[in-house]
Specification:
Number of strands: 39
Family: Belongs to the methyltransferase superfamily. LCMT family.
EC number: 2.1.1.290, 2.3.1.231
Helix content: 10-25%
Pfam families: Kelch_KLHDC2_KLHL20_DRC7, LCM
Number of helices: 15
GO molecular function, one term: tRNA methyltransferase activity
Subunit structure: Interacts with RNF144B/IBRDC2.
Length: 670
């Protein structure tokens, strides 16, 4: 448990060094320096932002009181006291910090040794005595095990804590490491013994979904299990807990809600522009698995820092599911390797032959951008898998992620866009040629020839997380290239029509209301036009709109597809059209009570039904974002290939095997 405190201090320090948080004291308190990934920086930014937002609100609301106090439980090497003191916010407030005796002693030694820190504390009251390892006029550092409540109470009394003045308790990922009976007792003790009290809690939620499983496993492997989760799995349970333990007011929100509603838009944009970033899914999943809670009792004016800019109600209850669809591991003759990847693309190049290219995943036991092309061939009800022979392997494939592959004939496909790293420019186009004749019964029969292209339309392709869809205009085929993002633009809303023969841009007039810019949306060919659904829009907010680009005599027209109930905003899903129904598969949404399964939209009536995916037959968490899917219309079978991602600092999860869903029930039932 002490190790988790050390590693979080290192992460906060790295976030401060990159400008996410303003904190010049962390580097003095944290010995080790490590540069963390942008995703980790964002995660620690939102944590620090939430705590600071609530602490400063407490100090503001109580500034008319002659004396107030802050008690930070499990404070570790946190710099809160030094920042508040430096900002001149502690005129009449004493800060008490409690942590394990050896942590408190280490911190006390550091403060005495470092001039910049000891100067802020000012006069030291005597040497560290017993549990009080450091004592200044407005700062006391105590070495006590929090789970021993009577010892804690004795130490605080000795240090001068006053239970009649406004007191803020802070527990930032601390209580969950204690047995529930002990953390509950602490929460109740704080409510009972202090006449004017506020409590700030930041912790994990949602242990049961795929991301939650990976998160729990990570903490168990560190030998620091998260005890709160089983009994208090969501925001509502945590809120009930505080009411039951004697607190009179309590508000709570997950970190997606906090970032959206309690962080000013200019600050959101500042943070989004600090580093090249392309891990939106994991950022939003991380935020839906952490919450911030504030509770109070006996305060003269109500303390509700989480309601400040809240114009929006709490995510309305659980998503209503129309039914469920059972997922099973694909029937195969041999183990399928090479498909543990995400950000790849899979396409049906012939009936029963699926080609998968690109992405990031596991190759020869290493995590890397994928070089190998992969093929799945269905024969007599079973899938066989293998690597594709590339006819000219020296042609650089530029191991790409978030590209598209469109089949133009039974022997030709075009690869458009994609990226290597998020700071690189997007990649251009490639032809993929496969021999027409091969009546593939075996993966080894499939060969692919790569041909580099420098078509006139190349600049249009320098993007990723876009879509390319076949449309028909006046009997001719075109590829409709839409949306995405580039190294310069975090979200694009433009489009191009590419003539399929020479891949040149053709100007075709488009009328109607232009959809807002988006990436990571879905696009399907339908009736000669395109259906665009969902996506991530500007300011990184998921979209719930569906548009149909419809062919007219002289061009195309954007039309809005009304859905009822309204489609829950989502992105990073895949989509297929069958028999007048649009199927959306997986993705990421902000409804943290469940993960997206299959949504069926009836394109005639607009009826929108959500189905859960039943994973009881799978032995591993099924993460359905950054996956690919292929629909086999004859069998009404949906194949889910790859998917997953880098789960914050909890490790990378890659779905180990392709999964099959039979959709015959839901496609015939309504």
């Amino acid at each position: 448990v002490q190790g988790t405190g050390g590693s979080s201090a290192v992460s906060k320090c790295s976030a401060a060094a990159r400008g996410y948080i303003q904190d010049r004291f962390l580097r003095l308190l944290v010995g080790r320096r490590r540069r963390r990934a942008p995703l980790v920086h964002r995660g620690y930014y939102i944590r620090a932002r939430a705590v600071d937002h609530c602490v400063q609100d407490f100090l503001l609301k109580t500034q008319s009181h002659p004396r107030t106090q802050i008690l930070s439980l499990g404070a570790g090497f946190d710099s809160l006291y030094f920042r508040l003191k430096d900002m001149g916010l502690l005129h009449h407030t004493v800060v008490y910090e409690v942590d394990f005796p050896n942590v408190a002693c280490q911190k006390a030694t550091l403060i005495k040794r470092i001039k910049e820190l000891s100067a802020l504390v000012g006069d030291v009251r005597g040497e560290g005595l017993g549990v009080i390892t450091f004592s200044g006029e407005d700062y006391k550092l105590l070495g006590v095990d929090l789970s021993e409540l009577s010892e804690l109470e004795r130490a605080l009394e000795e240090a001068g804590l006053d239970n009649e003045i406004p007191t803020l308790f802070i527990a930032e990922v601390v209580l969950t490491y204690m047995e529930n009976s002990r953390s509950d007792a602490l929460i109740q003790w704080a409510a009972e013994h202090f006449s004017q009290a506020c409590f700030l809690l930041y912790e994990q939620i949602h242990p049961e979904d795929p991301f939650g499983c990976v998160m729990q496993q990570h903490f168990s492997q560190l030998n620091s299990a998260l005890h709160s989760l089983a009994q208090y799995p969501d925001c509502e349970a945590q809120q009930r807990r505080f009411f039951e333990k004697g607190w009179s007011e309590c508000s709570v929100m997950d970190m997606n809600e906090f970032f959206t509603h309690c962080t000013p838009e200019d600050e959101q944009q500042r943070v989004q522009a600090l580093e090249p970033f392309d891990e939106y899914e994991e950022w939003h999943l991380k935020c839906s698995h952490y919450f911030v809670l504030t509770a109070s009792k006996g305060m003269e004016s109500s303390w509700t820092p989480l309601l400040s800019n809240m114009t929006v109600p709490h995510c309305d209850g659980p998503v209503r599911m129309a039914g469920s669809i059972t997922a099973v591991v694909c029937a195969t003759h041999s183990e399928i390797s090479g498909l543990r990847r995400y950000g790849h693309h899979s396409v049906l190049i012939k009936p029963n032959v699926i080609l998968t290219t690109g992405g990031f995943g596991e190759e020869d036991g290493q995590h890397c951008r994928m070089r190998n092309f992969h093929v799945l061939v269905k024969h007599a009800g079973y899938w066989k898998a293998g690597c594709v022979k590339k006819e000219n392997p020296d042609k650089r494939w530029d191991e790409r992620l978030y590209h598209t592959v469109s089949c133009l004939s039974s022997s030709l496909a075009v690869v458009v866009g994609g990226r290597t790293s998020p700071s690189s420019a997007g990649l251009g186009m490639l032809w993929l040629k496969f021999p027409e004749t091969s009546n593939a019964l075996d993966p080894g029969d499939v060969t692919v020839e790569l041909v580099s292209l420098q078509p006139a339309a190349e600049p249009a392709a320098l993007r990723w997380r876009h879509s390319t869809t076949e449309v028909i205009f006046k009997g001719k085929k075109y590829l409709f290239l839409y949306g995405g993002r580039s190294a310069m633009e975090p979200v694009l809303g433009d489009w191009y029509f590419l003539h399929t023969q020479e891949l040149s841009c053709t100007v075709i007039p488009v009328e109607g209301p232009v959809p807002e810019s988006r990436h990571s949306h879905s696009a399907c060919s339908w009736k000669g036009g395109v259906l665009i659904a969902g996506g991530l829009g500007a300011v990184e907010q998921p979209l719930g709109s569906v548009f149909f680009l419809r062919e007219l005599e002289h061009g195309f027209q954007w039309q809005t597809v009304e859905t009822h109930p309204p489609l829950i905003p989502r992105y990073s899903h895949t989509a297929h059209v069958h028999d007048g129904k649009l199927l959306l598969v997986g993705g990421v949404w902000f409804h943290s009570s469940s993960v997206p399964g299959i949504t069926v939209i009836d394109l005639m009536t607009g009826l929108c039904l959500d189905y859960a995916i039943n994973v009881e037959h799978l032995e591993w968490p099924l993460m359905l974002h950054n996956h690919s899917s292929v629909f086999l219309p004859n069998e009404k079978e949906l194949l889910l290939i790859g998917g997953g991602g880098n789960c914050f600092s909890f490790g990378t999860h890659l779905n180990p095997e392709p999964v099959s869903l039979s959709l015959s029930n839901i496609l015939t039932s309504h």
